[in-house]
TrEMBL record:
SUPFAM superfamilies, per the entry: N-acetylmuramoyl-L-alanine amidase-like (SSF55846)
Pfam entry (one): Amidase_2
Species the sequence originates in: Streptomyces lavendofoliae
Domain of life (superkingdom): Bacteria
All residue ranges annotated as the N-acetylmuramoyl-L-alanine amidase domain in the record: 24-155
Region span, Disordered: 77-103
Protein name listed in UniProt: N-acetylmuramoyl-L-alanine amidase domain-containing protein
GO biological process, one term: peptidoglycan catabolic process
GO molecular function per UniProt: N-acetylmuramoyl-L-alanine amidase activity
């Protein structure tokens, strides 16, 4: 049984001892539809109902843990514990009584910290769950199997924050690797001294109609994601959102081109994902001098129709000389 070192332990009994073990493979976030502290949430689970979550998170970032992460909790319907023994770690977060407000900055920060800890402690993979039993990160309404009878939880504002801030934040923080300092006895290569981390973080909500089965280069702010030379820190990450009802399989690829866009060479095609499962694409190679990194997408349908891309995000960290 695992307890998060930066959560306040408020153990629920008898659930903590009586419920079966799980091997945690997912993290699912909820809104509790009450403006409660973590302590008040604990008292509610203790005194009023037994549909508990593993964690509770107040508006001020107060994090309580009620059950160890390797024990089943009851907030996620079929995802609590599957027949193979895997299951979801769940968190209830304070919200207004309609479940319509965004998370506070303190809540966002704690969700990112907890998400990183779950990746490090339990190896939950850094992706959004593509199906109800796919290991990764998600929010309650993402998959219908996670609710008994349908839910809006955690609310539109928080779904947007999850996609654009919380999950990319977990990916970034879990994958940042600062180059080790040079040993004092060896002469330090110039490029390893005084480096700082800078960030690409661009999104574009302008709709794009993708012709069937044709590659299209996407613009975020513009078509260039990185201009070389650029040393990446962790992956650069693209996430795509398609219009509701889209029926297509989506493939992406990162390409290098000359500065003027000519001379394209690809890194290989990535995936063929269901358009409605928030396709995600990661890139991990530094960009050489004189080259630019761009991203292309292709949507394949059964009937030759166009597919409407409604939103796209690219995030990623890279090194720059300090002071720039
Ligand atoms: Zn929920």
């Amino acid at each position: 049984m695992a307890w998060c070192p930066f959560a306040t332990r408020m153990e629920l009994q008898p659930e903590s001892d009586a419920q079966p073990a799980i091997r945690p493979t997912q993290f699912i976030v909820h809104s509790i539809i009450a403006p409660w502290t973590a302590k008040r949430t604990y008292e509610y689970w203790r005194d009023s109902t037994n549909l508990e979550s593993h964690f509770g998170l107040g508006y001020a970032g107060d994090l309580g843990q009620f059950i160890g992460t390797e024990t089943r909790a009851d907030a996620n319907a079929a995802a609590n514990r599957r027949p193979d023994g895997t299951g979801a770690v769940s968190i209830e977060t304070a919200s207004n009584t309609k479940g319509t407000d965004p998370w506070t900055d303190d809540q966002v920060e704690m969700l990112i910290r907890l998400g990183v800890w779950l990746h490090q402690r339990h190896g939950i993979p850094l992706r959004i769950c593509r199906t109800h039993d796919d290991p990764g990160y998600g929010y309650h309404r993402l998959h219908s199997a996670w609710a008994v009878s349908g839910t809006a939880c955690p609310g539109d504002a928080r779904v947007r924050q999850f996609r654009e801030v919380v999950f990319p934040g977990i990916v970034r923080r879990a994958t940042v690797q600062i180059p080790p300092p040079s040993a004092p006895t060896s002469p330090a290569p110039e490029q390893e001294t005084d480096m700082a981390i800078a960030k690409v973080d661009e999104s574009n909500p302008v709709d794009v109609d993708l012709a069937d089965n044709e590659w299209t280069t996407l613009a975020f702010t513009d078509a260039v994601i990185h201009s070389g030379p650029r040393q990446l820190v962790g992956p650069t990450y693209v996430q795509l959102t398609f219009a509701p009802g889209t029926q297509a399989f989506v493939t992406g690829r990162f390409i290098l081109t000359n500065v003027d866009g000519t001379g394209a060479s690809g890194y290989g095609d990535l995936g063929e994902f269901d358009a409605l499962r928030l396709p995600q694409f990661l890139h991990n190679h530094d960009v050489p001098a004189g080259k630019t990194l761009r991203f292309q997408v292709k949507a394949r349908t059964d009937n030759g129709t166009t597919s409407k891309l409604t939103h796209r995000v690219v995030t990623g960290d890279y090194l720059v000389p300090a002071g720039q």
